[in-house]
Specification:
It is built from seven helices and 27 strands. The protein is mainly beta. The two termini are 41 Å apart. The N terminus is likely disordered. It is found in: Cell outer membrane.
């Protein structure tokens, strides 16, 4: 069962005087329109095409999730909305407890990797998450600010670049919003865990000279433990409990035959149990399937019409996501030499390999903090009835901080077991300072900074039998600065139950593209597009594409496309 409560939108006039007074400088934006104003059908840019047109039906399939559908879904995040669509049949990454990208969510439209699905915000590339490499983190997009989500399930490298080879998700933010809106929601699943909370406040004012919108949002989802889910009452049986293998008699230093449960250990500590001759561990009792996550966002967006031809626009957002995940205590393999106090079979002339669960050291808990600052400034210039230009600058700065507690330094634990300081037969009876002597806190720090400049133009050419032929063309230039740094012990590979390879790099990317629409006859369009991307670390490649749309009947549209794309290597 899921309950959701929301407060309806109220007009600005009903706001407290202090808030209303704060908006006075923007009052000129909200000049009323004359009833005699004549409105023509707006020409807009639809995901999958850079050409502005009144007909939203293009040659590529675009599915739109509007605001009404978002509200009706009861979801609290963009990731959850997308996860419920048929386009997510190949799976989206959700905040998995203890994983390398615990606090993030991404989307994979065609099953070829989420780094091949491009996420846009108002047509511009969304900030990348340091823990993912070149994937956008959907958790950093505040759902309260979203007007609609457009999903292009076709490859679009010819327009958007190499990371759009698997499709595009374009998140369109609210613009012409008037009034104030407050939302409060709570969700309670039918099983324990995963409770959701949300709250948002949104203010907006719009008029002939432009619009302004700003707000704040919060959403959270509780941790989901394996023991509380369907099948969670079935005991896990990990062999990393307290079992041993003899050292090979013919190949010293290698595992030989299985020996079963470690002699002298009763296997009755919490979550340990005997499965035939082996002492196994019930990891379901402690581990979480999904991490808890809390998202906080501040956002603002505005446009200002300077004259009939030129308008300025700006957008800024700050997001902070924090997460807590839990794994069961660290499993590991210890080599115990012959004549050690922990030798399972003293006097046999061989050492042993013990599959051990460091339950006395506690669970592995992971704390993650992600922050994203995204700023975009731009200009629209309607040069003539046929030509429009869009140009701007953008900077996004994503940061990652991660701490992991309860992890084991294998060489130190192995030395303590070898000389008997750590008693494998009575793990919970060991002195606290002995256990602390081989436990560690892992860390990870990352960043992904993108600085971008862009210019796009849309030009009507000539009339054809099916309508007006048009072209769009543009250039982009961006720099990418990436780092993902693990602590020295994880980097050295000596931490059991964890791993990490640090990576860092930077590069510049320059691109140019063109698109040509040819409406050869009524209800039959043909589109050609091509884009050239050049990476400073990889080189350059061309991505061409041809697509067509034929609508023989009012309720039947046939589409087809053929293209070629590439995927530049990730910085990680």
């Amino acid at each position: 069962m899921k309950n959701r409560y929301s407060l309806p939108a109220v007009r600005l006039a009903a706001l407290p005087l202090g808030i209303a007074a704060a908006l006075v400088p923007f009052a000129s934006l909200a000049q009323s329109q004359s009833p005699s104003d004549v409105h023509s059908l707006d020409r807009i840019e639809v995901t999958g095409s850079r050409i502005k047109r009144a007909d939203v039906e293009g040659a590529v399939p675009v599915t739109v999730i509007d605001r009404a559908a978002i509200d009706a879904s009861g979801h609290v995040s963009v990731a959850d909305v997308l996860r419920d669509t048929t386009f997510a049949s190949f799976g989206n990454f959700s905040p998995r407890s203890g994983s390398s990208a615990q606090a993030v969510s991404d989307v994979d439209l065609r099953g070829i990797g989420s780094d091949r699905t491009l996420v846009l915000i108002d047509g511009r590339r969304a900030p990348y998450a340091p823990s993912l490499g070149t994937n956008a983190d959907l958790n950093t997009i505040p759902l309260a600010a979203v007007e609609r989500i457009e999903i292009l399930s076709d490859g679009a490298s010819a327009l958007y670049g190499s990371d759009a080879i698997g499709g595009v998700v374009n998140v369109i933010l609210r613009k012409d919003f008037d009034g104030a809106e407050v939302r409060i929601g709570k969700g309670t699943p039918s099983v324990t865990g995963g409770d959701t909370d949300e709250a948002s406040v949104l203010f907006g004012i719009s008029g002939e000279r432009g619009n302004l919108m700003f707000g704040a949002s919060y959403n959270s989802r509780g941790i989901v433990f394996a023991r509380d889910q369907l099948g969670g009452d079935i005991r896990g049986g990990s062999p990393y409990g307290n079992n041993f293998y003899f050292e090979s008699a013919t190949e010293p230093g290698e595992e030989g035959e299985a020996g079963g449960a470690l002699p002298g250990y009763a296997c009755n500590d919490p979550n340990f149990w005997m499965n035939e001759k082996n002492c196994v561990y019930d990891y379901n009792a402690e581990a979480a399937n999904e991490a808890s996550i809390k998202n906080k966002s501040l956002f603002a967006r505005g446009t200002l019409q300077l004259n009939d031809a030129v308008s300025l626009y700006s957008a800024a957002s700050y997001s902070h996501a924090s997460s807590f995940g839990r794994y069961a205590p660290t499993p590991g393999v210890l080599y115990v030499p012959e004549n050690s106090p922990n030798d399972p079979v003293p006097g046999d002339g061989r050492g042993a390999f013990v599959y051990h669960r460091y339950a006395a050291a506690g669970n592995r808990d992971t704390f993650v903090d992600n922050t994203v600052l995204d700023i975009n400034l731009g200009m629209n210039w309607q040069v003539s009835d046929r030509l429009s230009i869009d140009a701007g600058l953008r900077r996004s700065d994503a940061r990652l901080g991660e701490l992991g507690r309860g992890y084991i330094v294998t060489p130190l634990a192995e030395a303590a077991a070898a000389d008997g300081r750590y008693n494998l037969r009575d793990p919970f009876g060991n002195a606290e300072d002995v256990i602390k002597g081989f436990t560690t806190t892992t860390s990870r720090d990352g960043k992904f900074v993108i600085e971008e400049a862009y210019a796009n133009a849309s030009l009507d050419l000539f009339d054809m039998a099916g309508g007006r032929s048009a072209v769009a063309f543009g250039v982009e230039s961006r720099s990418e600065d990436y780092a993902d740094i693990y602590d020295s012990l994880s980097e050295a590979g000596v931490v059991a139950g964890s791993a990490g390879n640090s990576a860092a790099g930077s590069r510049r990317v320059h691109a140019a593209y063109a698109e040509w629409l040819l409406p050869v006859m009524d209800r039959f369009d043909f589109t050609l597009a091509a884009r050239y991307d050049r990476y400073s670390d990889y080189g350059g490649d061309l991505s061409p594409k041809a697509s067509l749309r034929w609508q023989p009947l009012a309720n039947l549209t046939l589409r087809g496309s053929a293209g070629k794309g590439f995927r530049a290597p990730n910085l990680n």
